[in-house]
Amino acid sequence: MQDIGIDSLTAVLTRNHLAELTGLTLPAKIVFDHPNLKALGQFLLPKLLEAATDLSPAPTVAVVEGSVAAPVIFGWNTATIEKGCLDPQLRFDNAIQVAACPKAIFITGVTGFVGAFLLHELLELNIIAYCLVRADDVIQATQRLVRILEGYGLWKESYMPLINPVVGDLTQPLLGLDEEAFEKLAGRVDAICHTGALVDWMRPLEDYVGPNIISTHEVLRLASRGCCKTIAEQMVAAARWRGAKASVYRLLFVTASTRSGHFRLDRGDFLHNLIVGGIEMGSFSSLNADLSAVLPIDYLCKTITTMVTKGPATVGREYDFINANASSFNTFFKLVSAASGVGEIIHFDEWRERALAWAAAKPTSSLARISAVVDSLTEESAATMFRCLPVDEHVFDTNDCCNPLVDEQFVQKYWQRINAVRVVS
Protein backbone atom coordinates (compact mmCIF):
# COMPACT_ATOMS: atom_id res chain seq x y z
CA MET A 1 0.00 0.00 0.00
CA GLN A 2 2.89 2.34 0.75
CA ASP A 3 3.99 1.92 -2.87
CA ILE A 4 0.87 3.77 -4.02
CA GLY A 5 1.35 6.67 -1.63
CA ILE A 6 -0.49 5.49 1.51
CA ASP A 7 1.13 6.97 4.63
CA SER A 8 0.00 6.98 8.27
CA LEU A 9 -2.34 9.94 7.77
CA THR A 10 -3.99 8.69 4.59
CA ALA A 11 -4.24 5.22 6.17
CA VAL A 12 -6.43 6.63 8.95
CA LEU A 13 -8.46 8.70 6.48
CA THR A 14 -8.94 5.62 4.29
CA ARG A 15 -10.00 3.54 7.32
CA ASN A 16 -12.52 6.23 8.32
CA HIS A 17 -13.94 6.42 4.79
CA LEU A 18 -14.23 2.63 4.51
CA ALA A 19 -15.90 2.43 7.91
CA GLU A 20 -18.43 5.08 6.87
CA LEU A 21 -19.17 3.31 3.57
CA THR A 22 -19.45 -0.20 5.00
CA GLY A 23 -20.79 0.42 8.50
CA LEU A 24 -18.07 -1.91 9.86
CA THR A 25 -15.78 -1.30 12.82
CA LEU A 26 -12.29 -1.40 11.31
CA PRO A 27 -8.82 -1.24 12.93
CA ALA A 28 -6.73 1.86 12.32
CA LYS A 29 -3.99 -0.25 10.71
CA ILE A 30 -6.29 -2.08 8.30
CA VAL A 31 -4.62 -0.53 5.25
CA PHE A 32 -1.14 -1.61 6.37
CA ASP A 33 -2.37 -5.09 7.39
CA HIS A 34 -3.00 -5.96 3.72
CA PRO A 35 -0.32 -5.75 1.01
CA ASN A 36 -2.58 -4.56 -1.82
CA LEU A 37 -6.13 -3.53 -2.70
CA LYS A 38 -7.11 -7.04 -3.76
CA ALA A 39 -6.13 -8.45 -0.37
CA LEU A 40 -7.98 -5.64 1.38
CA GLY A 41 -11.07 -6.35 -0.70
CA GLN A 42 -10.88 -10.08 0.06
CA PHE A 43 -10.73 -9.22 3.76
CA LEU A 44 -13.73 -6.88 3.59
CA LEU A 45 -16.06 -8.94 1.39
CA PRO A 46 -16.94 -11.77 3.84
CA LYS A 47 -17.40 -9.24 6.64
CA LEU A 48 -19.80 -7.23 4.45
CA LEU A 49 -21.74 -10.37 3.54
CA GLU A 50 -21.93 -11.40 7.20
CA ALA A 51 -23.09 -7.93 8.24
CA ALA A 52 -25.63 -7.83 5.43
CA THR A 53 -27.05 -11.21 6.47
CA ASP A 54 -27.38 -9.97 10.04
CA LEU A 55 -29.32 -6.96 8.76
CA SER A 56 -32.01 -9.14 7.12
CA PRO A 57 -35.24 -8.44 9.03
CA ALA A 58 -37.47 -11.01 10.70
CA PRO A 59 -40.82 -11.73 8.99
CA THR A 60 -42.52 -9.28 11.35
CA VAL A 61 -40.95 -5.84 11.51
CA ALA A 62 -41.61 -3.38 14.28
CA VAL A 63 -42.55 0.09 13.04
CA VAL A 64 -41.24 3.06 14.96
CA GLU A 65 -43.97 5.62 15.52
CA GLY A 66 -43.86 8.31 12.86
CA SER A 67 -41.96 6.15 10.36
CA VAL A 68 -42.79 3.57 7.71
CA ALA A 69 -41.16 0.14 7.58
CA ALA A 70 -39.12 -0.45 4.46
CA PRO A 71 -40.51 -3.12 2.12
CA VAL A 72 -38.91 -6.56 2.19
CA ILE A 73 -37.71 -8.49 -0.88
CA PHE A 74 -37.02 -12.16 -0.08
CA GLY A 75 -36.15 -11.22 3.50
CA TRP A 76 -33.85 -8.42 2.28
CA ASN A 77 -34.80 -4.96 3.52
CA THR A 78 -35.05 -2.43 0.69
CA ALA A 79 -33.61 0.25 2.97
CA THR A 80 -30.34 -1.69 2.76
CA ILE A 81 -30.64 -1.93 -1.03
CA GLU A 82 -31.12 1.84 -1.17
CA LYS A 83 -27.65 2.21 0.36
CA GLY A 84 -26.18 0.23 -2.53
CA CYS A 85 -25.83 -3.13 -0.78
CA LEU A 86 -26.44 -6.26 -2.84
CA ASP A 87 -28.52 -9.14 -1.49
CA PRO A 88 -25.93 -11.62 -0.06
CA GLN A 89 -27.90 -14.51 -1.57
CA LEU A 90 -27.13 -13.37 -5.11
CA ARG A 91 -24.30 -15.34 -6.71
CA PHE A 92 -23.05 -15.29 -10.28
CA ASP A 93 -21.44 -18.72 -10.56
CA ASN A 94 -23.56 -19.15 -13.70
CA ALA A 95 -21.58 -16.44 -15.51
CA ILE A 96 -18.86 -18.79 -16.71
CA GLN A 97 -18.75 -17.89 -20.39
CA VAL A 98 -20.02 -14.91 -22.35
CA ALA A 99 -21.47 -15.60 -25.79
CA ALA A 100 -19.60 -14.01 -28.69
CA CYS A 101 -22.85 -12.37 -29.80
CA PRO A 102 -26.03 -12.76 -27.73
CA LYS A 103 -29.00 -14.24 -29.56
CA ALA A 104 -31.61 -13.06 -27.05
CA ILE A 105 -31.44 -9.97 -24.81
CA PHE A 106 -33.68 -8.74 -22.00
CA ILE A 107 -33.99 -4.96 -22.15
CA THR A 108 -35.62 -2.50 -19.77
CA GLY A 109 -36.61 1.11 -20.41
CA VAL A 110 -37.72 0.41 -24.00
CA THR A 111 -40.48 3.03 -23.84
CA GLY A 112 -37.90 5.70 -23.02
CA PHE A 113 -35.64 7.65 -25.37
CA VAL A 114 -32.39 5.69 -24.93
CA GLY A 115 -34.17 2.35 -24.58
CA ALA A 116 -36.16 2.77 -27.80
CA PHE A 117 -33.09 3.61 -29.88
CA LEU A 118 -31.06 0.81 -28.27
CA LEU A 119 -33.88 -1.66 -28.98
CA HIS A 120 -33.88 -0.53 -32.61
CA GLU A 121 -30.13 -1.20 -32.93
CA LEU A 122 -30.56 -4.70 -31.45
CA LEU A 123 -33.48 -5.52 -33.76
CA GLU A 124 -31.43 -4.37 -36.74
CA LEU A 125 -28.98 -7.15 -35.83
CA ASN A 126 -31.84 -9.71 -35.69
CA ILE A 127 -31.39 -10.17 -31.95
CA ILE A 128 -34.48 -11.44 -30.11
CA ALA A 129 -35.58 -8.81 -27.59
CA TYR A 130 -37.50 -9.52 -24.39
CA CYS A 131 -38.83 -6.07 -23.50
CA LEU A 132 -40.06 -5.12 -20.02
CA VAL A 133 -43.18 -2.96 -20.44
CA ARG A 134 -45.71 -1.70 -17.93
CA ALA A 135 -49.11 -2.65 -19.37
CA ASP A 136 -52.33 -4.56 -18.61
CA ASP A 137 -51.48 -7.45 -20.92
CA VAL A 138 -49.15 -8.58 -23.72
CA ILE A 139 -51.37 -7.10 -26.46
CA GLN A 140 -51.32 -3.65 -24.85
CA ALA A 141 -47.57 -3.95 -24.22
CA THR A 142 -46.96 -4.80 -27.89
CA GLN A 143 -49.09 -1.87 -29.04
CA ARG A 144 -47.19 0.45 -26.73
CA LEU A 145 -43.83 -0.75 -28.03
CA VAL A 146 -44.86 -0.33 -31.66
CA ARG A 147 -46.27 3.13 -30.95
CA ILE A 148 -43.05 4.27 -29.24
CA LEU A 149 -40.84 3.04 -32.09
CA GLU A 150 -43.18 4.60 -34.66
CA GLY A 151 -43.00 7.89 -32.78
CA TYR A 152 -39.23 7.97 -33.25
CA GLY A 153 -39.44 6.80 -36.87
CA LEU A 154 -37.78 3.48 -35.99
CA TRP A 155 -40.49 0.86 -36.55
CA LYS A 156 -40.38 -1.88 -39.21
CA GLU A 157 -42.94 -4.69 -39.56
CA SER A 158 -40.05 -7.14 -39.86
CA TYR A 159 -39.24 -6.50 -36.17
CA MET A 160 -42.48 -8.10 -34.93
CA PRO A 161 -41.21 -11.73 -34.75
CA LEU A 162 -38.18 -10.56 -32.74
CA ILE A 163 -40.14 -8.68 -30.06
CA ASN A 164 -41.32 -10.49 -26.92
CA PRO A 165 -43.09 -8.08 -24.53
CA VAL A 166 -42.70 -8.92 -20.83
CA VAL A 167 -45.49 -7.31 -18.81
CA GLY A 168 -43.98 -6.12 -15.53
CA ASP A 169 -42.91 -3.19 -13.37
CA LEU A 170 -39.34 -1.92 -13.08
CA THR A 171 -39.86 -0.67 -9.52
CA GLN A 172 -41.11 -3.95 -8.02
CA PRO A 173 -39.42 -7.10 -6.67
CA LEU A 174 -38.72 -9.60 -9.47
CA LEU A 175 -39.53 -6.71 -11.85
CA GLY A 176 -43.23 -7.29 -11.18
CA LEU A 177 -43.13 -10.94 -12.33
CA ASP A 178 -44.01 -14.06 -10.38
CA GLU A 179 -41.21 -16.46 -9.43
CA GLU A 180 -41.95 -18.91 -12.26
CA ALA A 181 -42.02 -16.23 -14.98
CA PHE A 182 -38.84 -14.67 -13.57
CA GLU A 183 -37.00 -18.01 -13.71
CA LYS A 184 -38.19 -18.72 -17.26
CA LEU A 185 -37.06 -15.29 -18.42
CA ALA A 186 -33.62 -15.81 -16.87
CA GLY A 187 -33.24 -19.05 -18.81
CA ARG A 188 -34.21 -17.54 -22.15
CA VAL A 189 -31.80 -14.60 -22.45
CA ASP A 190 -28.04 -14.41 -23.01
CA ALA A 191 -27.59 -10.81 -21.87
CA ILE A 192 -29.38 -7.91 -20.18
CA CYS A 193 -29.45 -4.23 -21.19
CA HIS A 194 -30.80 -2.17 -18.30
CA THR A 195 -31.70 1.32 -19.56
CA GLY A 196 -34.81 1.87 -17.46
CA ALA A 197 -34.51 4.76 -15.01
CA LEU A 198 -36.20 7.93 -13.83
CA VAL A 199 -34.50 10.93 -15.47
CA ASP A 200 -36.02 14.12 -14.10
CA TRP A 201 -34.01 16.69 -12.15
CA MET A 202 -37.12 18.23 -10.65
CA ARG A 203 -38.26 15.14 -8.71
CA PRO A 204 -37.52 14.46 -5.00
CA LEU A 205 -34.83 11.89 -4.19
CA GLU A 206 -37.26 9.25 -2.90
CA ASP A 207 -38.91 9.07 -6.34
CA TYR A 208 -35.69 7.61 -7.77
CA VAL A 209 -35.47 4.64 -5.39
CA GLY A 210 -37.79 2.26 -7.25
CA PRO A 211 -36.93 2.98 -10.91
CA ASN A 212 -33.20 3.61 -10.41
CA ILE A 213 -32.03 1.54 -7.43
CA ILE A 214 -34.49 -1.31 -6.80
CA SER A 215 -34.64 -1.89 -10.56
CA THR A 216 -30.85 -2.33 -10.82
CA HIS A 217 -30.88 -4.73 -7.87
CA GLU A 218 -33.62 -6.87 -9.41
CA VAL A 219 -31.95 -6.86 -12.84
CA LEU A 220 -28.83 -8.20 -11.12
CA ARG A 221 -31.02 -10.82 -9.43
CA LEU A 222 -32.21 -11.86 -12.90
CA ALA A 223 -28.58 -12.07 -14.07
CA SER A 224 -27.78 -14.36 -11.14
CA ARG A 225 -30.37 -16.87 -12.34
CA GLY A 226 -30.55 -18.98 -15.51
CA CYS A 227 -27.50 -19.50 -17.70
CA CYS A 228 -26.47 -16.40 -18.71
CA LYS A 229 -23.10 6.82 -11.25
CA THR A 230 -24.01 6.12 -8.14
CA ILE A 231 -25.74 3.59 -5.92
CA ALA A 232 -26.77 1.52 -8.94
CA GLU A 233 -23.12 1.42 -10.13
CA GLN A 234 -22.07 0.42 -6.62
CA MET A 235 -24.36 -2.63 -6.81
CA VAL A 236 -23.04 -3.56 -10.26
CA ALA A 237 -19.48 -3.34 -8.92
CA ALA A 238 -20.45 -5.58 -6.00
CA ALA A 239 -21.99 -8.05 -8.45
CA ARG A 240 -18.76 -8.14 -10.45
CA TRP A 241 -16.87 -9.05 -7.27
CA ARG A 242 -19.16 -12.07 -7.07
CA GLY A 243 -18.52 -13.11 -10.66
CA ALA A 244 -21.12 -11.19 -12.68
CA LYS A 245 -20.19 -10.22 -16.23
CA ALA A 246 -21.42 -6.61 -16.24
CA SER A 247 -20.49 -3.32 -17.89
CA VAL A 248 -21.65 0.22 -17.15
CA TYR A 249 -22.11 2.84 -19.90
CA ARG A 250 -22.25 6.36 -18.45
CA LEU A 251 -24.39 8.73 -20.51
CA LEU A 252 -24.36 12.46 -19.82
CA PHE A 253 -26.50 14.74 -22.03
CA VAL A 254 -28.27 12.71 -24.72
CA THR A 255 -29.48 14.81 -27.63
CA ALA A 256 -31.45 14.20 -30.83
CA SER A 257 -30.67 11.69 -33.57
CA THR A 258 -28.23 12.82 -36.25
CA ARG A 259 -30.12 10.72 -38.79
CA SER A 260 -33.67 11.92 -38.19
CA GLY A 261 -33.63 14.75 -35.64
CA HIS A 262 -35.94 12.76 -33.33
CA PHE A 263 -35.66 13.90 -29.72
CA ARG A 264 -37.03 12.72 -26.38
CA LEU A 265 -40.81 13.06 -26.50
CA ASP A 266 -41.81 13.03 -22.83
CA ARG A 267 -40.90 16.70 -22.23
CA GLY A 268 -38.55 15.87 -19.35
CA ASP A 269 -35.28 16.60 -21.19
CA PHE A 270 -33.51 19.61 -19.64
CA LEU A 271 -31.26 20.38 -22.60
CA HIS A 272 -34.09 20.06 -25.14
CA ASN A 273 -36.31 22.35 -23.05
CA LEU A 274 -33.44 24.84 -22.79
CA ILE A 275 -33.03 24.90 -26.59
CA VAL A 276 -36.73 25.02 -27.46
CA GLY A 277 -37.33 27.54 -24.67
CA GLY A 278 -34.70 29.81 -26.22
CA ILE A 279 -36.43 29.55 -29.60
CA GLU A 280 -39.84 30.30 -28.06
CA MET A 281 -38.53 33.27 -26.06
CA GLY A 282 -36.29 34.56 -28.85
CA SER A 283 -33.00 34.55 -26.93
CA PHE A 284 -30.27 32.17 -25.79
CA SER A 285 -27.84 32.46 -22.91
CA SER A 286 -24.14 32.96 -23.52
CA LEU A 287 -22.41 29.98 -21.86
CA ASN A 288 -18.71 29.44 -21.21
CA ALA A 289 -18.97 25.73 -22.04
CA ASP A 290 -18.85 23.37 -24.99
CA LEU A 291 -20.80 20.32 -26.14
CA SER A 292 -18.21 17.73 -25.07
CA ALA A 293 -20.77 16.11 -22.73
CA VAL A 294 -23.55 16.23 -25.35
CA LEU A 295 -23.89 13.25 -27.71
CA PRO A 296 -26.60 12.16 -30.17
CA ILE A 297 -28.82 9.22 -29.28
CA ASP A 298 -28.11 7.22 -32.44
CA TYR A 299 -24.32 7.43 -31.98
CA LEU A 300 -24.56 6.32 -28.34
CA CYS A 301 -26.90 3.38 -28.97
CA LYS A 302 -24.94 2.20 -32.00
CA THR A 303 -21.74 2.23 -29.94
CA ILE A 304 -23.29 0.39 -26.99
CA THR A 305 -24.86 -2.25 -29.25
CA THR A 306 -21.51 -2.82 -30.94
CA MET A 307 -19.85 -3.37 -27.56
CA VAL A 308 -22.63 -5.63 -26.26
CA THR A 309 -22.33 -7.89 -29.32
CA LYS A 310 -18.51 -7.98 -29.45
CA GLY A 311 -18.15 -10.66 -26.81
CA PRO A 312 -16.12 -11.27 -23.62
CA ALA A 313 -13.23 -8.88 -24.32
CA THR A 314 -15.41 -5.80 -23.78
CA VAL A 315 -17.36 -7.01 -20.72
CA GLY A 316 -16.72 -5.99 -17.12
CA ARG A 317 -15.75 -2.32 -17.50
CA GLU A 318 -17.09 1.18 -16.96
CA TYR A 319 -17.30 3.19 -20.18
CA ASP A 320 -17.48 6.98 -20.53
CA PHE A 321 -18.36 9.05 -23.60
CA ILE A 322 -16.88 12.35 -24.80
CA ASN A 323 -17.68 14.42 -27.88
CA ALA A 324 -14.12 15.13 -29.00
CA ASN A 325 -15.33 17.35 -31.86
CA ALA A 326 -17.43 19.58 -29.65
CA SER A 327 -18.23 23.15 -30.63
CA SER A 328 -18.99 25.80 -28.03
CA PHE A 329 -22.54 26.32 -26.79
CA ASN A 330 -22.46 29.83 -28.22
CA THR A 331 -21.62 28.44 -31.68
CA PHE A 332 -24.36 25.84 -31.32
CA PHE A 333 -26.93 28.47 -30.28
CA LYS A 334 -25.94 30.57 -33.32
CA LEU A 335 -26.66 27.55 -35.55
CA VAL A 336 -30.04 27.02 -33.85
CA SER A 337 -30.83 30.72 -34.24
CA ALA A 338 -29.93 30.63 -37.93
CA ALA A 339 -32.00 27.49 -38.56
CA SER A 340 -35.08 28.72 -36.69
CA GLY A 341 -34.79 32.34 -37.78
CA VAL A 342 -35.17 33.59 -34.20
CA GLY A 343 -33.02 34.16 -31.16
CA GLU A 344 -30.15 36.35 -30.01
CA ILE A 345 -27.35 35.40 -27.63
CA ILE A 346 -27.32 37.56 -24.50
CA HIS A 347 -25.46 37.60 -21.17
CA PHE A 348 -26.52 34.84 -18.78
CA ASP A 349 -27.88 37.12 -16.04
CA GLU A 350 -30.12 38.98 -18.50
CA TRP A 351 -31.24 35.71 -20.10
CA ARG A 352 -32.02 34.14 -16.72
CA GLU A 353 -34.17 37.12 -15.72
CA ARG A 354 -36.05 36.96 -19.03
CA ALA A 355 -36.43 33.18 -18.82
CA LEU A 356 -37.96 33.22 -15.34
CA ALA A 357 -40.37 35.99 -16.33
CA TRP A 358 -41.31 34.05 -19.48
CA ALA A 359 -41.87 30.86 -17.45
CA ALA A 360 -44.08 32.69 -14.96
CA ALA A 361 -46.17 34.22 -17.75
CA LYS A 362 -46.38 30.96 -19.75
CA PRO A 363 -46.67 28.05 -17.28
CA THR A 364 -46.98 25.40 -20.03
CA SER A 365 -43.88 26.55 -21.91
CA SER A 366 -40.60 24.66 -22.27
CA LEU A 367 -38.81 27.10 -19.96
CA ALA A 368 -41.52 26.68 -17.31
CA ARG A 369 -40.68 22.96 -17.17
CA ILE A 370 -37.09 23.73 -16.15
CA SER A 371 -37.64 27.00 -14.27
CA ALA A 372 -36.83 25.44 -10.88
CA VAL A 373 -33.36 24.52 -12.16
CA VAL A 374 -32.85 27.81 -14.03
CA ASP A 375 -33.78 29.75 -10.89
CA SER A 376 -30.96 28.05 -8.95
CA LEU A 377 -28.26 28.63 -11.60
CA THR A 378 -25.52 31.22 -11.77
CA GLU A 379 -23.37 31.98 -14.82
CA GLU A 380 -20.62 29.78 -13.40
CA SER A 381 -22.82 26.86 -12.31
CA ALA A 382 -24.65 26.85 -15.66
CA ALA A 383 -21.34 26.39 -17.46
CA THR A 384 -20.17 23.77 -14.96
CA MET A 385 -23.36 21.76 -15.48
CA PHE A 386 -22.39 20.99 -19.07
CA ARG A 387 -18.75 20.15 -18.47
CA CYS A 388 -17.64 16.51 -18.69
CA LEU A 389 -17.14 14.70 -15.42
CA PRO A 390 -13.78 13.01 -14.74
CA VAL A 391 -13.55 9.85 -16.82
CA ASP A 392 -12.12 6.41 -16.14
CA GLU A 393 -9.73 4.35 -18.24
CA HIS A 394 -12.18 3.32 -20.96
CA VAL A 395 -13.46 6.29 -22.94
CA PHE A 396 -15.32 6.49 -26.24
CA ASP A 397 -14.69 9.70 -28.11
CA THR A 398 -15.77 10.88 -31.55
CA ASN A 399 -12.33 11.36 -33.11
CA ASP A 400 -13.09 8.61 -35.60
CA CYS A 401 -16.04 10.55 -37.01
CA CYS A 402 -15.36 12.40 -40.25
CA ASN A 403 -17.50 15.38 -39.23
CA PRO A 404 -18.60 16.85 -35.90
CA LEU A 405 -21.58 14.93 -34.55
CA VAL A 406 -23.42 18.11 -33.59
CA ASP A 407 -23.00 20.42 -36.57
CA GLU A 408 -25.05 22.56 -38.96
CA GLN A 409 -26.59 19.52 -40.67
CA PHE A 410 -27.59 18.08 -37.30
CA VAL A 411 -29.17 21.38 -36.23
CA GLN A 412 -31.19 21.57 -39.46
CA LYS A 413 -32.65 18.08 -38.91
CA TYR A 414 -33.25 18.81 -35.23
CA TRP A 415 -35.09 22.05 -36.05
CA GLN A 416 -37.20 20.36 -38.73
CA ARG A 417 -38.29 17.73 -36.21
CA ILE A 418 -39.05 20.37 -33.56
CA ASN A 419 -41.16 22.23 -36.11
CA ALA A 420 -42.96 19.05 -37.19
CA VAL A 421 -43.89 18.20 -33.59
CA ARG A 422 -45.14 21.76 -33.02
CA VAL A 423 -47.42 21.53 -36.06
CA VAL A 424 -48.85 18.17 -34.97
CA SER A 425 -49.47 19.31 -31.40
Automatic annotation (TrEMBL):
GO terms for molecular function: hydrolase activity; transferase activity. Residues 1-48 form the Carrier domain. Keywords: Hydrolase, Phosphopantetheine, Phosphoprotein, Transferase. Pfam families: NAD_binding_4, PP-binding. PROSITE patterns: CARRIER, PHOSPHOPANTETHEINE. Gene3D superfamilies: ACP-like, NAD(P)-binding Rossmann-like Domain. One of its GO terms (biological process) is secondary metabolite biosynthetic process. InterPro entries: ACP-like_sf, FAR_NAD-bd, NAD(P)-bd_dom_sf, PP-bd_ACP, Ppantetheine_attach_site. SUPFAM superfamilies: ACP-like, NAD(P)-binding Rossmann-fold domains. This is Acyl transferase/acyl hydrolase/lysophospholipase.
